Amino acid sequence: MAHAITVKTLRPQPIATIRTTSATATIGATLGQILPEVFAYVVAQGQQPAGPPFTRYLDDSGETIELEAGIPVAAPIAGNGRVQAGALPGGPVATIWHVGPYDTLTATYAVLTTWMAAEGRTAGGPLWEVYWTDPQEVPDPAEWKTEIICPLRS
């Protein structure tokens, strides 16, 4: 599959997230617990998601990974301890689309890494994945659409 990489500038985006450490092998189950909790909290605060859920990968030490998962919100929201308020950074980013099951994302990451090296670009912060397809609504993993976003150093 051919992957097109787009460079664009994002505005900072208010978010509500839960930050945790997960075994790499159980990220899916971890997200399955976190994302509904964040969604319920946001709705209880009188807001609706301002976009699809995402996961930002903060520290990958091999067998475990520190991550934050959540949803964008239209306006900053107060946290409650477990659910934290924050923002996805604005600025230049490289984006690439992955279509297919989550367990094949590494191939798309490899394309992004190769492109960044060829273009002399470096990451300006943690990458994140935006899940544009809800697996509960689209059960065929071959149709799942995930956008990978990599902040770029200016």
Question: What is this entry, summarized?
Answer:
This protein is α+β, with helices and mostly antiparallel strands.
Sequence-ordered SSE layout with sheet pairings:
Elements: E1 5-10, E2 13-23, H1 27-44, E3 54-60, E4 64-72, E5 84-88, E6 91-99, H2 105-119, E7 128-131, E8 145-151
Antiparallel strand pairs: 1-6, 2-4, 2-5, 3-4, 3-7, 6-8, 7-8
Q: Termini distance?
A: 29 Å
Name of the CATH homologous superfamily: Regulatory factor, effector binding domain
Low-confidence stretches: none
The coarse overall form would be: globular
Compute the gyration radius: what is it? 15 Å
Structural class: alpha+beta
* CATH uppermost class: Alpha Beta
Q: Got a strand count?
A: 8
Largest sheet composition: 8 strands, antiparallel
CATH fold node name = Multidrug-efflux Transporter 1 Regulator Bmrr, Chain A
Q: Helix proportion of residues, in percent? A: 10-25%
CATH architecture: Alpha-Beta Barrel
Domain unit count: 1
Strand line-up across the major sheet: 1-6-8-7-3-4-2-5
Helical stretch tally: 2
The mean pLDDT is 94
H and E string: EEHEEEEHEE
Strand portion: 35-45%
Structure description:
By secondary structure, this protein is an alpha+beta fold. The chain has helices at 27-44, 105-119, and strands at 5-10, 13-23, 54-60, 64-72, 84-88, 91-99, 128-131, 145-151. It has 2 helices and 8 strands, in the order E-E-H-E-E-E-E-H-E-E. The chain has an 8-stranded antiparallel sheet. A hairpin with a 3-residue loop joins strand 3 (54-60) and strand 4 (64-72). The longest helix has 18 residues, at 27-44. It starts with a strand and ends with a strand.
